Amino acid sequence: MKGSKTISPSSHYCLDLPAEIHEQYEGGVASFWHDKTDVVLQTSSYFRTEGDQVGAQRRLQERLHNELFTSLRPVEVTPARCSDAAAATGLDEEGLQWILGYAVWPDLAVFYSICGKQETFASKSPWACEAVRSMRRG
After folding, report:
1. Residue spans of beta strands (DSSP E) within the chain
2. Of the candidates 67, 43, 66, which has an alpha carbon nearest to the alpha carbon of residue 135?
3. CB atoms within 10 A of CB 67
4. Which of 24, 58, 104, 120 suits a disulfide with 116, CB 3.0-4.6 Å?
5. Where does 11-77 show beta strands of DSSP type E?
6. Continuous segment of H or E residues that includes residue 65
7. Which of 119, 116, 110, 50 is nearest to 85 (CA)?
8. Exposure of 135 by Cβ count < 10 A (0-12 exposed, 13-18 middle, 19+ buried)?
């Protein structure tokens, strides 16, 4: 990513973001946004110290069961360096497009959401999608 910076929302993972991205951390949720776009990326994670890990697809299905999205479909906005990842996109009641996804490693699960106007996603891949693709263990 040209003109980027690497951010570690926790000590367990990191991602590359454009240098001019703003960030805020609150209650275990990291939020990222850019003044020139309507796109917001949020991430949260859970580090597992014992027990069996739940896979990305199952986590995503359970999450989507509680959402009221239309036009729901799978999407390939997942970290390139994670073998257990799943994501889906849909529209909310206000017509905003959402991408919800999970990246799962044996001891770590990261949930991410990207939200923005439908036109933004139709014209090009937003910076947030590229940031998710860059996600890796920290």
Report:
1. 4-10, 13-18, 22-26, 29-33, 40-47, 70-74, 84-91, 96-105, 108-117, 136-137
2. 43
3. 12
4. 120
5. 13-18, 22-26, 29-33, 40-47, 70-74
6. helix 56-65
7. 110
8. buried
- Residue 5 tokens read as 């910076």
Rounded CA gap, 113 and 130, in Å?
Answer: 13
120 or 30, greater pLDDT: 30
Give the pLDDT mean for 32-56: 93
Cβ within 8 Å of residue 90, ≥6 positions away: 64, 67, 69, 70, 71, 72, 73, 97, 98
Q: In angstroms, what CA-CA distances link 81 with 71, 97, 134?
A: 28, 25, 8
- Give the global pTM: 0.93
Pairing of strands 29-33, 96-105: unpaired
With pLDDT > 70 as the criterion, what percentage of the chain qualifies?
Answer: 99
The two tokens of residue 73 are 């479909």
